[in-house]
Amino acid sequence: MTSPALPATDLAALLRAQAQLNQPHTLFRAVQDACAERFGFRFLTVLKNLPGTGNVMRMHSSEPDYPTGALKPMGLTEWGKVVLDGGQSWLGNSREDVLWAFPDAELILSKGCEACACAPVLWAGRCVGVLSLNDARDAYSPDDMADMTLIAQTLAPALI
């Protein structure tokens, strides 16, 4: 099911969240709430790209099994070439996609997640982070990725 384009009022709410106190938590929570309402998810993470290390750092998570501050070796993977190096969104909608993309695929799959939608956060031409949503198989469509990418971009101030 394709949803209508992201309303300007939704984007405005995220931009207002950037100006609030208690950053970056306030912005992360506003993005989480917007994604829950717009797309749904079993869990959501915000990752900061750490160029030159081969890692990303989890900055926010809706799932206790994915603690913040943890490093994940994604920079040297094929997924990393697409998202972190290429600055492209990535959509996986099957068990095979999750196994291809993530070193912790078994944990992701154990939560009933065979869909993963990843939108890069770009700043000055480089990927500074990623918004990642996970849910049941075929939960996300290519049409969802345009709005997800807009929402992800609001995270830039928290990740640079």
Commentary on this structure:
The protein is an alpha+beta fold and 160 residues long. The chain contains seven helices and six strands, in the order H-H-E-E-E-H-E-H-H-E-E-H-H. The chain has helices at 8-18, 25-38, 78-85, 95-101, 105-110, 142-153, 156-159; strands spanning 43-50, 55-61, 71-72, 90-92, 115-123, 126-135. The chain has a six-stranded antiparallel sheet with strand order 3-2-1-6-5-4. A hairpin with a 4-residue loop joins strand 1 and strand 2 (55-61). Helix 1 packs antiparallel against helix 2. The longest helix has 14 residues, at 25-38. The protein is globular and about 40 Å long.
Task: Note the main attributes of this structure.
160 residues; alpha+beta; six-stranded antiparallel beta sheet
Topology:
Blueprint: H1 8-18, H2 25-38, E1 43-50, E2 55-61, E3 71-72, H3 78-85, E4 90-92, H4 95-101, H5 105-110, E5 115-123, E6 126-135, H6 142-153, H7 156-159
Antiparallel strand pairs: 1-2, 1-6, 2-3, 4-5, 5-6
Helix pairs in contact: 1-2
Short description:
With 160 residues, the chain is an alpha+beta fold. It has helices at residues 8-18, 25-38, 78-85, 95-101, 105-110, 142-153, 156-159; strands at 43-50, 55-61, 71-72, 90-92, 115-123, 126-135. α1 packs antiparallel against α2 (25-38).
Distance between the termini: 34 Å
What coarse outline follows from CA principal-axis ratios? Answer: globular
Strand order of the largest sheet: 3-2-1-6-5-4
Mean pLDDT: 94
Q: Helical proportion?
A: 25-40%
Q: Would you identify the regions where 5 or more consecutive residues have pLDDT less than 50?
A: none
Based on helices, strands and strand pairing, what is the structural class?
alpha+beta
